[in-house]
Design goal:
The chain is built from 1 helix and no strands. It has about 160 residues and is mainly alpha-helical. The mean pLDDT is about 85.
Length: about 160
C-alpha cells in the first residue's frame, strides 16, 4: 500500500509538474500576447494623442483668430467712441469759451453801468433842483397868466 500510495503520490507530483509546465508555457504565451497587445495599444494611443494635439492646435489657432477679430472690432468701436467724445468735448470747450467771453463782456458792461449809477446821484440832485426851479417858475407864470386873464376880464367887463 505504501508503494501504491507512493506511486499515486509520484503520479500526482508529475501531474502537478506537467500542469506547472503547461501553466508556465501558457503564461509565457499570454505574456507575449499581452506585450503585443500593449505595444499595439501604445501605438494606437500615440497616434490618438498626435491627432488630439493636432486638433487642439487647430482649435487654439481658430480661437486666437476669432479673438483677434473680436478685439479688432472692439478697438474700432473704441476709436470711434473716442473720436466722437473728443468732438463733443471740443464743442463743449468752444461753447465754454464763448460763454466766458460773454461773461467778461457783461461783467465789464455791468461795471460801467454801476459806475454811471454811482455818479448819477449828484446829477439827480441837480436835476431835482432844476425841476423844482422849473416848477416854481411855472407856478409864477401860471399866477401871472391868471392875473392877466383876470385883468382882461375886468377890463372887458368895465
Amino acid at each position: 500500500m505504501d508503494e501504491e500510495l507512493n506511486a499515486r503520490f509520484d503520479q500526482v507530483l508529475r501531474e502537478i509538474a506537467e500542469t506547472r509546465k503547461d501553466l508556465r508555457a501558457e503564461m509565457a504565451d499570454m505574456g507575449k500576447g499581452l506585450r503585443g497587445e500593449m505595444a499595439e495599444m501604445r501605438d494606437d494611443l500615440r497616434d490618438e494623442m498626435a491627432e488630439t494635439r493636432q486638433m487642439l492646435a487647430l482649435e487654439i489657432i481658430n480661437t486666437r483668430q476669432s479673438f483677434t477679430e473680436r478685439i479688432d472690432g472692439v478697438e474700432q468701436k473704441l476709436d470711434s467712441f473716442r473720436d466722437e467724445t473728443q468732438a463733443n468735448f471740443d464743442e463743449v470747450y468752444r461753447r465754454l469759451e464763448r460763454l466766458e467771453s460773454e461773461y467778461y463782456a457783461i461783467s465789464a458792461a455791468l461795471i460801467r453801468v454801476e459806475k454811471m449809477i454811482s455818479e448819477e446821484p449828484s446829477d439827480r440832485e441837480e436835476l431835482k433842483r432844476e425841476v423844482e426851479d422849473l416848477k416854481s417858475r411855472l407856478a409864477a407864470l401860471e399866477k401871472k397868466l391868471a392875473d392877466l386873464e383876470r385883468d382882461l376880464r375886468d377890463d372887458h367887463d368895465a
